[in-house]
């Protein structure tokens, strides 16, 4: 277990993702010697970039031979067509990373980021069967479905027992955050949708389900998640525990959606009879976004690198209630929180400053 007063060496796996970028920035700011692992090896200020493929154990071993981290955060996953493939690919990714680090014997703590599919089931059986009551609590038993989160946890637990490091698992909800070059981001996707509506004179229609429109929900700020990971890796109370991580408040999309529309200056509509997914309504918008990017001198003209319609549709289209209990984390001493509404608009502001959206 590393000390919060004497930062050491940290490795962020998935450093170009929405969570990885937020965490890496925090680690650098706190004085950690930070290494960022990604397939592209894309550099971020203050971070030593490491390029490797999580599916290539030999390449990982070579790339990570001299990193010798104290703290490791695994924030990456790759979606596959079936859950069987998800288990094979994403379970192996955790196994390969930890095996590559094993010879150096430097690792003191490994944090694994998963999510609420731990409670709701995988994509193939999402929200079906005996889903636990909300708010979801960490002590709930695993569901009786194959799930790549469980496979990742099992790889983590086995490596921890073998090598003597502590671990933590961080179960996030929908993530609000600031990240460049990462499209699986609800704030940026919704912002791009609003900008396209304004450009084309279209109505800003809520794309999701009636339950998500009218019901209560919560979300996770990426910066808050980063704070919890660092806390768990530097405090005894965070060792060998799974924690939910959400902002600590709840809201309804029917209240937030009009505020977003007003912010972007577009007319809006709420849920009406059935979902109206973005993946259908936003087809063929690449040229329109390219025009917006040229008009406003934006940094990224490729809409595929800005918006992930399917990902936001899956979050807003849920037909089961998703609320997270944060009491375990609070009792352990992590007291961070965010106002979800302020979180959304703060990240919009940052995207504007970075010339990602108009």
Give a description of the structure:
- The structure is a single chain.
- The protein is α/β, with parallel strands linked by helices and about 350 residues long.
- The chain has two domains: about 10-170, Rossmann fold; about 185-215 and about 250-320 and about 345-355, no CATH class.
- It is built from 14 helices and 13 strands.
- The strands form four sheets. It has a seven-stranded parallel beta sheet with strand order 3-2-1-4-5-6-11, sandwiched between helices.
- Strand 4, helix 3 and strand 5 form a beta-alpha-beta unit.
- Helix 1 (about 20-30) crosses helix 8 and helix 2 runs parallel beside helix 3.
- The longest helix has 19 residues, at about 85-100.
- The N and C termini lie far apart (about 45 Å).
- The model has no long low-confidence stretch (mean pLDDT about 95).
How would you sum up this structure in a few lines?
This protein is an alpha/beta fold. The protein contains 14 helices and 13 strands.
């Amino acid at each position: 277990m590393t000390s919060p007063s004497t930062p050491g060496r940290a490795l962020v796996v998935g450093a170009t993702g929405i969570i990885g970028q937020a965490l890496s920035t925090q680690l650098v700011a706190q004085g950690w010697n930070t290494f960022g692992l990604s397939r592209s090896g894309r550099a971020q200020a203050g971070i030593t970039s490491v390029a490797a493929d999580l599916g290539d154990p030999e390449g990982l071993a070579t790339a990570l031979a001299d990193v010798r981290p104290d703290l490791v955060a695994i924030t990456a996953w790759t979606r596959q067509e079936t859950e069987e493939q998800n288990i094979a690919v994403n379970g192996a990714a955790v196994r390969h990373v930890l095996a590559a680090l094993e010879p150096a014997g430097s690792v003191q703590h490994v944090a694994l980021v998963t999510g609420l599919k731990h409670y709701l089931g995988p994509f193939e059986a999402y929200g079906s069967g005996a889903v636990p009551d909300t708010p979801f609590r960490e002590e709930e038993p695993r569901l009786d479905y194959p799930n790549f989160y469980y496979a990742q946890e099992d790889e983590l637990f086995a490596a921890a027992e073998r090598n003597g490091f502590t671990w933590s698992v961080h179960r996030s909800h929908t993530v609000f955050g600031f990240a460049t070059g990462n499209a699986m981001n609800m704030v940026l996707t919704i912002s791009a949708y609003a900008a396209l509506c304004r450009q084309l004179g279209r109505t800003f229609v809520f794309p999701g389900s009636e339950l998500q429109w009218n019901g209560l929900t919560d979300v996770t700020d990426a910066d808050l998640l980063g704070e919890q990971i660092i806390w768990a890796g530097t405090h005894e109370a965070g060792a060998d525990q799974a924690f939910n991580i959400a902002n600590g408040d709840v809201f309804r999309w029917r209240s937030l959606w009009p505020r977003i529309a007003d912010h972007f200056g577009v007319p809006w509509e709420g849920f009406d009879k059935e979902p109206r997914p973005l993946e259908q309504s936003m087809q063929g918008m690449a040229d329109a976004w390219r025009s917006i990017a040229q008009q406003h001198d934006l940094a990224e003209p490729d809409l595929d690198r800005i918006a992930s319609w399917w990902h936001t549709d899956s979050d807003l289209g849920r037909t089961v209630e998703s609320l997270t209990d944060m009491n375990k984390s609070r009792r352990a001493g992590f007291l961070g929180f965010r106002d979800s509404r302020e979180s959304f608009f703060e990240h919009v502001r940052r995207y504007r400053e970075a010339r990602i959206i108009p």
